[in-house]
Amino acid sequence: MESILQKIRVDVNPDIYLKDPFSSDLGKELISVSVDLLIDLGFEHFTFKKLASQIGCTESAIYRYFDNKHKLLLYLTSWYWGYLEQNLVYATANLTDSCKKLKIAIKILVKGPIFTQNDFIDPIQLRRLLTDEATKAIMTKEVDEEYKKGFFNHYNKLGERIANLVLEVNPRFEFPKTLVSTVMESSLMQSYYSRHLPALTEHQPGDDRRIDFFNNLVFKTIENEN
Questions:
Q1: How far is it, in rounded angstroms, from Cα 7 to Cα 197?
Q2: What is the DSSP letter of 120?
Q3: Do residues 183 and 214 make contact, with C-beta atoms less than 8 angstroms apart?
Q4: Tens of pLDDT along the chain (226 residues)?
Q5: Alpha-carbon 199 to chain mean position
Q6: How many CB atoms lie within 10 A of CB 219?
Q7: Domain map (residue ranges) of the chain
Q8: Which of 36, 40, 148, 222 is deepest in the core (most CB within 10 A)?
């Protein structure tokens, strides 16, 4: 199964980029190095000039792929949520138990992808990046226009897929999208808190008990809605 996902790529909205980064060796290196550099520097201090210097190319070469670093972050964010959806589809393909499928979805949201080998991007490093920087891709003045352009489609599709699993467990539950989007965001925020603001959480980095917390949150919320 993992070997299948290793070869599958995520199709990101083409309006996010100028040139498909996976159409050339430079573009692939651009994506790979940018993840590590964004982790090291943070979004605010990351520049295409620094990325070009790290890769060993001209800054103008980077601009052939993306208009700006915001679009690059949107690309990486979109790719991640699309890859999680692929993980969820393959991990639940042969299951009929709705509760088991929902638990797998929660595990993927809280810990990241189950299948972590990929020829294009390191999903583990990418999750680490998004833990710190994902909100900066969404919380901008341009978000409404970018939403209309479909820049967040992978995020929306994953949320809708998991919301449908919630309804499989309890068809009477009124707020499946609200519940799922809360878990999608707070699963990243709890990872952020554990590393940077530990007084706000009981969990340490890598603590698997977070899965237990979110399982309890989701299933008790669903069960209480009759």
A1: 37
A2: S
A3: yes
A4: 455 555 567 899 999 999 999 999 999 999 999 999 999 999 999 999 999 999 999 999 999 999 999 999 999 999 999 999 999 999 999 999 999 999 999 999 999 988 776 667 888 899 999 999 999 999 999 999 999 999 999 999 999 999 999 999 999 999 999 999 999 999 999 999 999 999 999 888 776 788 999 999 999 999 875 5
A5: 25
A6: 17
A7: 1-6+70-224
A8: 222
Tell me which residue has tokens 């226009």: 145
Using CA atoms, how far apart are residues 214 and 7, in angstroms rounded to an integer?
31
**Among 219, 77, 94, 217, residue whose Cα is nearest residue 156:** 77
| DSSP code per residue over 179-222 | HHHHHHHHHHHHHHHHHH-GGG-SPPTT-THHHHHHHHHHHHHH
Structure tokens at 160: 């809708």
Sequence-separated (6 or more) residues with CB below 8 Å from residue 183: 106, 109, 110, 214, 217, 218
| Residues ≥6 apart with Cβ < 8 Å to 26 | 55, 57, 61
Would you say 119 and 28 are in contact if contact means Cβ atoms under 8 Å apart?
no
Rounded to whole angstroms, the Cα distance separating 8 from 157 reads 18
Give yes or no for a contact between 205 and 132, defined as CB atoms under 8 angstroms apart.
no
The token duo for 18 is 């100028």
